Amino acid sequence: MSDKPSDDQPSASEIPDDVWEQFTRDTERDIRASAPKEPSARARMVTERLRQQDARGETPPGWRTDPVRQERNVRTARRRKLWAVLGVPAAVAVALVALKPSLLPGDPFGTGTSQAADPLPAETAAPTAPPGASDPETPTLDEPFAGSPALRWADGEAGIVLPEAKAVGAVSKGRVEQALKLAKKLLVSANLDLATVRGERPEAALSVLDPQQPGTVDDLDTALRSPSREHDPLTLFSRFDPDRVRLVGDVIKTRGRMTLGKGSHGGVAVHADYTFVYPVTRADGSTEVARTIVRRAVDVELADPARYRVTAGRLLLLKYDEEIGNSSCDVHDGYLHPEFPLSRAEATRPTGPTTDPYDRSRSLDDGDACGTVSRT
């Protein structure tokens, strides 16, 4: 074999010195890195001790099997799985809310499309305009006030908020407070008591009226016993025929106010102006819901028994007016007769002027007893 280098391989003398030195250093480094290393004496002792403990089942905590570390790893894995599971529904929910913010409770983005309307504060002065238009929703057995301004009104007796009692002229604060409480009792019994609404006798309302007042309690008794055009209990009491109509649920919406003044019989006069909204359905099992709206203005006085022939602790009924929305006209049997839009015949439609039964800015003198209502 010839030692002569081939023509295509350079001889050592032809390789530059700096290149040869770099090649030598790299080669020595690689040899040292790949050579097996003798473990230190301490490493051999630790390895042997662990081997013996492992053989006896005594592997110390923290060496590959630390239970705290394992539990932490498990919890981390669980969290990752939980977020992975929740991630898709959360993304879907975010997409739905982005498309329809009204799905959120309240109105967090100020869109004005809140599903749960905030209740109105108590009325303390006469409104200057009717309530704004509501969404044209159809009332149902589950949502009998849907599409009505009364949705934001107070429920029942909570809507009768008494003004602060204070002395009126020579009438003490205590007497004024008594008059306010009696006036509220009259309104509640006459318009909100479920027995009264079902057509029963309003005993509590009659009990606060003065029996010595000529032509008052006797006339009301006659109206309740034998209703007619001349003696109509609906002028003071809200009543439905239980054989034809039933109340939907037990909530009657209420809105109004009371004011105080000096009486003409040495006492304190109370003026009450309230509107009541009754959701009803037919008693034959129909699911159609209608609403009847009744507004009442009542003036009473707690007179001075020391100066006038009156019964102490009873009210004089001075004046009472009413306006009824959605009830058949010219029926004088002592009951309200709501009309249901889906079953109302053209011949029974009212022909009088159209009024808004929710408009509390109007005087009752401005209305027509048998007109057409713009909404219910």
TrEMBL record:
Leader peptide range in chain numbering: none
Keyword annotations: Membrane, Transmembrane, Transmembrane helix
Keyword Transmembrane set for record: yes
Region (Disordered): 1-72, 109-149, 342-376
Transmembrane segments annotated in the record for this chain: 82-99
Biased composition (Basic and acidic residues): 23-32, 39-57
Composition skew (Low complexity), residue ranges: 116-136
Protein name: LigA protein
Species this chain originates from: Streptomyces viridochromogenes (strain DSM 40736 / JCM 4977 / BCRC 1201 / Tue 494)
